[in-house]
Amino acid sequence: MTSTIEGGLSTGGAPGLVQAPLLSDEQVGHIRHVDNLSRLPRGDWRHMAGPLPFQEDFSAYRYQLGYMSLAMALAHYHQLPAAPAVFKGQLDRLIGKMLEPDAWSYWRDTSTQGGYGPFTLPRLPSRTDPVAVDNIMYSAYLQVMTLMYTMLFDDHTYEQPGSLSFSMRPVLWGKDRHERFEYDQRSLNERIYWNMVENGYLGVACEPFCVFQVCNQVPILGFRLHDHLYGGDVATEVTQGYLKAWEQFGGGVNKNGHFASYIVQRNELLPEDVLLDRDSAWTDGWLGMLMNMWRPELVRSVYQNKIEQWLDRGRDGLISVRNLSRLPGSADLVELGTLGEIGWLAAWASEMGDREVADGLLGHADTFMNPQWENGGLYYPRRDETYDDAGHFVAVTPTVSNATFPYARLNVADGLRTLFERPWADGERSRPALTEVHQQVDVRRAWYHEDTRCLQLAVSPMHGLSSATTDLVISRVWDRGPWVLAVDGVTVARGDEGRVEATPEGRRLQPERVGDGLRISLDLRGRADVEMIWSAA
User: Fold this and answer.
1) What is the pLDDT of residues 214-224, one digit of tens each?
2) Helix axes 355-368, 341-351, angle to 10 degrees
3) What secondary structure does DSSP assign to 430-482, as a single string?
4) Do the strands 468-475 and 483-487 form a parallel or antiparallel pair, or are they unpaired?
5) How distant is the alpha carbon of residue 104 from its chain centre?
6) Long-range contacts of 511-515 (CB under 8 A, 24+ apart)
7) DSSP secondary structure code for residue 413 in this structure
8) Are 116 and 160 within 8 A, CB to CB?
9) 82 neighbors 445 (Cβ within 8 angstroms)
10) Phi, psi (rounded to 5 degrees) for 274
11) Lowest CB count within 10 Å: 44, 116, 263, 287, which one?
12) What DSSP letter does each residue of 108-152 carry, written as one string?
């Protein structure tokens, strides 16, 4: 059905308009699962606990929270750009969890170092402040999380002094002992920058003396976002310095053509820097998914030459991770699967635009890794063994379920690279967008097409529900000229700067102006397609 208003404005779709894609059940399920985790009360880390204590492995909360946030930021940027209602509160809550002592208090012990891998390293005094020196494996994720939040939503909460505070006050310490360290996103960025400079741009250490390439890609994204928001060109300075510093270590790629993992820096027990360059699937996948944002030619070359080494191709297009114990020189590797290899490789493939590999890995997970739905969210229960009785790869770490699988399923080709090169500015953030929706409603489409002045939304009851009632608030509606609003092709309201007029079919939706937006009420019995079109300027 098509209706018109003055100027020939039509609800049948703007001329030449291409419908934005709909998110699949699995994609909205990942978004819902992350949202569910973000809403858990303080101290409730269900579905996030890993097999090792003390936050020592790649299922540590900091990694899960960091990559959950990055996956959701990419989903907002690429998949649902006109739906801040879905992501803003979620990302803010994830930042709040990142500031909990559960996510960073490990540093009091880890900062003392001791032994790592094949080396014995000097013992150091314990430090509590998790961002002052080293610990880029935490500080950079918090840096990026807050800067993405500001960039995506134009919300300056984390610019305020003390907005990023680390407070340690256990009950049994007594009332007089309290350790508290206060930062904001600018001072945190500055601290990370000077750690980078003082280490000759090689990178900031994770544990003392250990500089991992992977974790030092994250602050590069942070510097880029900070430059975008506040001016400067620190990202270029750091990447140029990084390239020069890594020249003596093969430029970050080892003799076998894989990404080098990390450097143990010289100290009183080690006379010179030592490069750890054993080939590993997790290093290739994790580093590749990140470094593509600023070294795409190198990353694509490594991917094309080495990805197949890590893949075990099965029937019907399913792909799992190859049994590395069959490879020469692999006897000292930790058990396959425990480092989340399948998730890192899937995320890397998604960034490369290789949907065959990404979807093959995800398809294997959907077939053999026991996908579950809970409160409308999709997740894969943790499983510590590598293979089931039939020999299928089944290892699932919390990071895979909560972060890297969502990342792989929601990302697009060169997704992180595009965000890095073209962060959102005022133009993107001032477009009409969905800013309120009920928690039990999934948003499957949310795009504003600038050329045709059309906002497209699609909403449905969340997975497991047959119906839902919701108010939708579309913001930044006014001062754009006459408009018409349709639901499932039927005109329900029209108006301009001074009026809102419901059609007979739309009166039950109670359209009304609220501030700079328009509110309507929907009773959903399935998917509803909402389209709002403004007349030509």
Assistant:
1) 999 999 999 99
2) 150
3) TS-EEEE--TTEEEEEEEEETTTTEEEEEEEEPTT-S-EEEEEEEES-SSS--
4) unpaired
5) 19
6) 511/485, 513/477, 513/478, 514/473, 515/475
7) T
8) no
9) no
10) -125, 130
11) 44
12) HHHTT--EETTEE---------SSSSS-HHHHHHHHHHHHHHHHH
The token pair at 122 is: 């000097």
Residue 508 backbone dihedrals phi, psi, to 5 degrees: -65, -15
Q: How confident is the model at residue 176 (pLDDT cuts 50, 70, 90)?
A: confident
Phi, psi dihedrals of residue 18, rounded to the nearest 5°: -95, 125
**Closest Cα to residue 302, out of 321, 319, 285?**
285
Cβ neighbours for 497, distance < 8 A, ≥ 6 positions apart = 478, 479, 481
Structure tokens at 71: 């996956």
At position 445, the amino acid (one-letter code) is: R
Instruction: Tally the C-alpha atoms within 13 A of residue 363's C-alpha that lie toward its C-beta.
Output: 14
Q: What is the mean pLDDT of residues 509-518?
A: 95
Token pair of 214 as six digits: 């992977």
Coil, helix or strand for 320?
strand
How far, in whole angstroms, is CA 78 from its chain's centroid?
Answer: 12
- Sign of the C-alpha dihedral, residues 203, 210, 49, 396? positive
pLDDT digits (tens, 9 = 90+) for 198-255: 999 999 999 999 999 999 999 999 999 999 999 999 999 999 999 999 999 999 999 9
H/E segment holding residue 36: helix 25-38
Average pLDDT rounded to a whole number, residues 89-96: 98
List of E strands, 117-249: 119-120, 164-168, 179-183, 210-212
At how many degrees (to 10) do helices 281-291 and 341-351 cross? 30
Contact 522, 506 (CB under 8 A): no
Ordered strands of the 210-212 beta sheet: 210-212, 262-264, 274-276
pLDDT in tens, 435-455: 999 999 999 999 999 999 999
Angstrom distance (rounded) from CA 403 to CA 30: 9
Going by C-alpha positions, the residue among 77, 394, 134, 70 that lies closest to residue 262 is 134
User: How many helices and strands, by DSSP H and E, does the chain display?
Assistant: 17, 23
The predicted-structure confidence for 290-337, as pLDDT tens digits, reads as follows 999 999 999 999 999 999 999 999 999 999 998 765 444 444 445 677
> If you average pLDDT over residues 82-102, what whole number do you get?
98
Distances (CA, A) of 18 to 15, 50, 415, 456: 9, 44, 21, 10
Helix, strand, or coil (residue 356): helix
CB 494 within 8 A of CB 501: yes
State how far the Cα of 110 lies from the Cα of 133, in Å rounded to an integer: 12
> Rounded distance, CA 135 to CA 146, Å?
17
Token pair recorded at residue 259: 């990404």
Q: Global pTM?
A: 0.94
User: Are the CB atoms for 529 and 458 separated by under 8 Å?
Assistant: yes
Helix, strand, coil percentages (3-state) for the chain, rounded to 5, are 40, 20, 40
Amino acid 166 reads: F
Q: How many CB atoms lie within 10 A of CB 488?
A: 13
